[in-house]
Amino acid sequence: MHLKTVQTPVAVVTGGSAGLGLCIAQVLAAKGYRVVIVGRDADRIEKACQAIASSLGGDSVDNVPLGKTADVTESSEVGELFRFVKTKFGRLDVLVNTVGTSDRGLLENLAQDRLHTLWQQNVVSSLLCSQYAIPMLETTGGVIVNIGSLASKVGARYIGGYAIVKHALAGMTSQMRLELKPRGIHVALVSPGPIRRADAGNRYTQQLNENLPDQAAKPGGGARLKGLSPERVAAAVVRCIQRRTPDVVMPGYLRPLIAIGHAFPRLGDWLLLKFTSSKSPD
Ligand SMILES: NC(=O)c1ccc[n+]([C@@H]2O[C@H](COP(=O)([O-])OP(=O)(O)OC[C@H]3O[C@@H](n4cnc5c(N)ncnc54)[C@H](OP(=O)(O)O)[C@@H]3O)[C@@H](O)[C@H]2O)c1
Questions:
Q1: From the CA of 264, how far away is ligand 1's center (Å)?
Q2: Any atom of ligand 1 within 6 Å of the Cβ of 184
Q3: Pair 42, 69: CB distance under 8 Å
Q4: Ligand 1 pocket test: which of 49, 73, 102 has the largest number of ligand atoms within 8 Å of its C-beta?
Q5: CA-atom Rg of the chain in angstroms
Q6: 17 lines ligand 1 (CB under 6 A)
Q7: Cis peptide leading into 9, omega within 30 of 0?
């Protein structure tokens, strides 16, 4: 760890009340971080804190996460969040920007208001939290991790505006890493493929229509990839923090395929169509 003091490190996990964010918060708490879980729904946060507390057992009372409600797309609420962290702990070592939303549809039909929502959730949320966190992270030589997706690296069919905003998040991450390196802050992107979850396949039913094939409802818009466990992705996020890795792709075997696709776009398109086509005709 590149921490400048031996005090208990502090981590803020946005979107820590559910899904991948909850799992990341749990792993960080188990590693000894004081974790602040951020979401919009206080009950959901409370339940997440309780779940992590019981997973930690009675001996780790000091590591039970704190919850803080904030809509991280709202500058005033993000400002209040980081003032709370400063007042409560006086330091920040890690910010994990997990808040993000996927999409289903064709770009041909992408509405401007939907793109605005995706932009706020996937890009503005991470930008605002990072901006407010920088002064404290500079003091500790801390780390920002942005949670991307394979849609940060490549396009795929049927995922609406998701590739647009996750590519923007990737660009923001690499620019911020260069800007903050001289100030001792590391900025990373973790880009997982579809993550296993209870509501897989049912999440996007409201966005499906006659223009989309059945495979669009599936994780990754029907990408032929085995779902990752959230625990595996959370462990990779923590490794990325500890090793100050700039960029993580999961599963890792896709990284060379993505690089080949960028170097040889015709071959890249062929690979993407192969990985994202259902076996039966659409
Ligand atoms: N699921 C996948 O298969 C997958 C695959 C690759 C990448 N990812 C990425 O991983 C991240 C997490 O995805 P997930 O599916 O685990 O998420 P999720 O289950 O939908 O959970 C989203 C979390 O973010 C919170 N949240 C949403 N909007 C917020 C806002 N404006 N302000 C504060 N909190 C907010 C939610 O709580 P409230 O609603 O109570 O605010 C919840 O805690 C996203 O960036 C996603 O793009 C997911």
A1: 33
A2: no
A3: yes
A4: 102
A5: 19
A6: yes
A7: no
How confident is the model over 221-233, as pLDDT tens digits? 778 889 999 999 9
Question: Is there a contact between 138 and 183 (Cβ–Cβ < 8 Å)?
Answer: yes
Closest CA to 115 of 103, 97, 126, 100: 103
141 CB-side CA count, 13 A: 9
Specify the fold of 10-255. Answer: Rossmann fold (3.40.50)
From atom 22 of ligand 1, which residue's Cα is the shortest distance away? 15
Which band of pLDDT confidence, cut at 50, 70 and 90, is reported for residue 280? very low
Residue boundaries of the structural domains of the chain: 10-255
Question: Both tokens of residue 217?
Answer: 């409802």
Q: Are 249 and 153 in contact (CB under 8 A)?
A: yes
Distance 137 CA to ligand 1 centre (A): 23
Q: Where are the alpha helices (DSSP H) in the chain?
A: 19-30, 42-56, 75-89, 112-119, 125-140, 162-180, 230-243, 254-263, 265-275
Ligand 1 pocket member 225 (CB < 6 A): no
191 lines ligand 1 (CB under 6 A): no
Closest C-alpha residue for ligand 1 atom 2? 195
Nearest-angstrom CA–CA distance, 89 and 193 = 34
Average pLDDT, the chain: 92
